[in-house]
Write a structure and sequence with these properties.
Two copies of one chain form a homodimer.
Chain A (H helix, E strand, L loop, with lengths): L5 H8 L3 H8 L7 H14 L5 H8 L4 E6 L6 H15 L3 E6 L4 H13 L4 E4 L9 H8 L4 E4 L9 E5 L1 H14 L5 E5 L5 H16 L6 E4 L4 H13 L6 E4 L2 H13 L9 E5 L13 E4 L2 H17 L8 E4 L2 E3 L10
Parallel strand pairs in A: 1-2, 1-3, 3-4, 4-5, 5-11, 6-7, 6-8, 8-9, 9-10
Antiparallel strand pairs in A: 10-12
Helix pairs in contact in A: 1-2, 1-3, 2-3, 5-12, 8-9, 10-11
Chain B binds a DNA duplex (16 and 16 nucleotides) through helix 2 and helix 4.
Chain lengths: 337, 337
Amino acid sequence: MKHVTIKDVASKLNCSVSTVSRAFNDKYDIRPETRSLILKTAEEMGYRPNPIARKLIKQRSLNIGIVVPEFVNSFFPEVIIGAQDVLHEKGYQVLIMQSNESKDIEYKNVETLVDNMVDGILISLTSEVTDNEYYAKLINRGMPLVFFNRVLEGLNVSRVLFDDYKWAFFATEHLIVQGHRNIVHITGPEELLLTKERIKGFDDAHKKYKIAPGKKVTCGFTMKDGEGMAQKMIDNDELPKAIFSASDLSAIGFMKTLKNNGIRIPEDTAIVGFSESRLAENVYPPLTSVKQPTYEMGRTAAELLIEQIQNTGKFVPQTIVLNGKLNIRESSVNVGA
Amino acid sequence: MKHVTIKDVASKLNCSVSTVSRAFNDKYDIRPETRSLILKTAEEMGYRPNPIARKLIKQRSLNIGIVVPEFVNSFFPEVIIGAQDVLHEKGYQVLIMQSNESKDIEYKNVETLVDNMVDGILISLTSEVTDNEYYAKLINRGMPLVFFNRVLEGLNVSRVLFDDYKWAFFATEHLIVQGHRNIVHITGPEELLLTKERIKGFDDAHKKYKIAPGKKVTCGFTMKDGEGMAQKMIDNDELPKAIFSASDLSAIGFMKTLKNNGIRIPEDTAIVGFSESRLAENVYPPLTSVKQPTYEMGRTAAELLIEQIQNTGKFVPQTIVLNGKLNIRESSVNVGA
DNA sequence: TTGTAGGCGTTATCAA
DNA sequence: TTGATAACGCCTACAA
């Protein structure tokens, strides 16, 4: 497509390109009448300064990139909306990229954003990313970066995360208080820090009540993953009395298979999910789940990033831990006892 | 952040920038050894051609923009994944923007993409966009464009949409066949073409069975919208025997209020949704809904766009209508009769 | 096979 | 207050 350029405007008005440029850059060394004439003419001609050329010379874009591992769950979209609200307000445009849980795509996404000279990046990692090297390099090159939700350790970078340990602890404790002694934790991908934190919370809750540690099984975050896990347990005849799942979707998939097999929830098996989605309160039976402050996570990450961009050099990375809430519903309430 | 440039590489190797450039552009007028030496050195130095500069000179970016009105529903994310699969394969990077159902943000998003010199745009409109003017201009300027799902009429542009008329007809017919004669259609925002099509389908199904036309009430696409609508009907004592809702979310919100008021589904009021979300089969009772081919919609739109980009000028815009499926579940099956 | 130079659309520096 | 000109990083005739 064709762009009207600064030259077109200049030649139409018989003035130099620098004058036109000045009119658009709010410098004061230009006569007001000239300025308004230029602006008017440019408007008529449909001229808009080309930000590509501008980027090239200014080395900044007023664009921010957001990279998420997936957005089939409502979790990331909600975070993005929070971030977007802050960034738009500050005059930034937001470019979103999703990595489909693939490390290769994630790296490509980041490169694309770097190539497009975004001023900063908000990122949540795919589960395939386990080592620091790539991002250490990026940070070293001076790209303002904030990790959220799925983060790495050992990097000098800001992070916004959820207190996975604490809420896994509470979720487990809730099941224990309901009288359960045979709880299985369906974890997320083992590489994720949040998985490790949730496992720790799960174990410590057992310790507090002096119960033998519950079993852990690794599982993905999708509904299909949950369905498969349930089927496996049923087939092996090792379905526990209670399940604490690291994701709502896998919990709901799990429930689905149980229901199809005539197993009652919570009477036969109680279930607690994590990372509340809109699904939780609408499935049957309604699912007990840990609610995370998604919108706030996006806002916080965005604010941190902007602060960093505005204070390059003297900015000290921080880690902000957000709080949550356990929504108790029928899927875990011991109606029998 | 600092970029290694072509000059750095050239001076390191004591050659000219054009030689380096050539090495990266796979032209054959370069000695293989020179080429591989340059590539190797560049790699070591961390040089990557700056696509901003490249865009400026080539006037193309290998980037495609996708603009969606929202992505809280899983509908648009699924479409995006379909489009992304095609585009990645063709070597394009995908920039996603969401408009939050606001016309202003939508236009800004489009401008940002144009400014970033994307090679084409896939777009689904916010409900606030009702006139052609803005997009007519964009098309006129030569930006390759494909509308999907939420489209405009009267523009010379490719469109991928769903046969809303047909499936609204079938959904309604299903309720009629179940014996219902008092069906209310909860529509989407009136401005949307798809809303009009669904209303037409709803009415024509009534005609076919020679039943007096059912009532229509306008409503948003969110769960809250559905909840409010149900409450209003209950308060006014005008709850019908059957509901055909233009969105799963509003249908589910509707169900929620009904359940809270002790109204049985489908015995007291039967419900059919539209645009199947993952929720449909997991809520209680499971919701009858029209399933749309989201992933395929994304693929098709992307393919159309690429075709258009590759044949600028001689490309003839097409409208592709995709098929769907009615998933019949408990929420609408007449158990009483 | 390689180098030189002009240009993509801007902004910034210096003269005028 | 305005204009010429050199960047920004790259590509591509054209010349060597």
